Amino acid sequence: MKKKLEIDSHSIVEARERIDAFVHWTPLMRSSAINKLAGCELIFKCENFQKVGAFKARGAANAVLKLQPSQREKGVATHSSGNHAAALARAASAAGIPAYIVMPATAPEIKKRAVREYGGLIFECEPNLQAREEGLRSVVSTYGAVFIPPYDHWDVIEGQATCAYEIVESGLSLDVLMTPVGGGGLLSGTALATHFFSPETKVIGAEPEGADDAQKSFLAGKRIPLQQANSIADGLLTSLGEINFAIISRYVTDILTVSDDEIIAAMKLIYERMKLVVEPSCAVPLAVVLRNKSRFQGQQVGIILSGGNVDLARLPFR
Questions:
Q1: Among 147, 179, 247, 264, which residue has the fewest nearby CB atoms (within 10 Å)?
Q2: What is the pLDDT, as a whole number, of residue 128?
Q3: Considering only CA atoms, which of 56, 22, 28 is closest in space to residue 185?
Q4: What is the mean pLDDT of the chain?
Q5: Could you check whether 9-52+153-314 and 57-147 share the same CATH topology?
């Protein structure tokens, strides 16, 4: 790895203790009906029940709580289209510091509303990476706030690793553990936690075909930035981070992709069979299992349901 590994088993345990008062220990759920369809035993880690409705609460809380007092004074800043924005705003509010959030004007209204409710100050920008980064530079320059990236940050990754650590703590011995992958915060954290605490478990990333830079990067052995993204899984439309890629390339077994139609079908299945509200990004791993039944036949497969912040007025099914 080009970057020195700054996370170990002890730091993950410490992170879980550090954020304990700020996050939920989310439940594990099963569905016999979905197991029958998939041909394997699926265990769902329900981060849609997490604070702010997504796993992002873990990484944001850990990063904010690890700041030095002198860093906290002027607050924190980030650019995000949704869940990280709300998570950072909430973590900052709990720490009693301001949060400055640059968000695309096209971000889902439910996610903007969450940021405001947690006390975050939103600066809207055009929906492209250049505009987001320029907006962030302006905010940091104006307020002197500390930038907390959504995924390409050791403390954020360490916080996300606590999700898989909880699965291991529950006593499960999984054959496979799957997460969605966008920027790679959850997948890289999951890969590290699994490497340290359950090394016999294979970690697989799940990605939309319309935003498949992680798979391309994984297969090429080098980071290939996302050029164009077109998928209903709005939480995964971002390029894989540098630190995240270094971890994923070393500790992840594979990254598999699915179509939007398959994502929608899996999302609908979770609503109908499990009565759970999940966002499209959340359904990608289940779609991968259903597409590749022979690969997972008879195995015990964990899936992290990454979040439930969906705009109910824009559900992709009836």
A1: 147
A2: 79
A3: 56
A4: 94
A5: yes
Point out which residues pair with 48 in neighbouring strands. Answer: none
Q: Which CATH class is domain 57-147?
A: alpha beta
State the CATH architecture for 9-52+153-314.
3-Layer(aba) Sandwich (3.40)
Q: What is the 3-state secondary structure (H, E, C) of the chain?
A: CCCCCCCCHHHHHHHHHHCCCCCCCCCEECCHHHHHHHCCEEEEEEHHHCHHHECHHHHHHHHHHCCCHHHHCCCEEEECCCHHHHHHHHHHHHHCCCEEEEEECCCCHHHHHHHHHCCCEEEEECCCHHHHHHHHHHHHHHHCCEECCCCCCHHHHHHHHHHHHHHHHCCCCCCEEEEECCCCHHHHHHHHHHHHHCCCCEEEEEEEHHHCHHHHHHHHCCCCCCCCCCCCCHHHCCCCCHHHHHHHHHHCCEEEEECHHHHHHHHHHHHHHHCCCCCHHHHHHHHHHHHCHHHHCCCEEEEEECECCCCHHHCCCC
Residue identified by tokens 């959850």 is 186
Residue where the block lists tokens 């369809």: 37
Global confidence as pTM: 0.94
**Weakly modelled stretches of the chain, pLDDT under 50:** 1-2
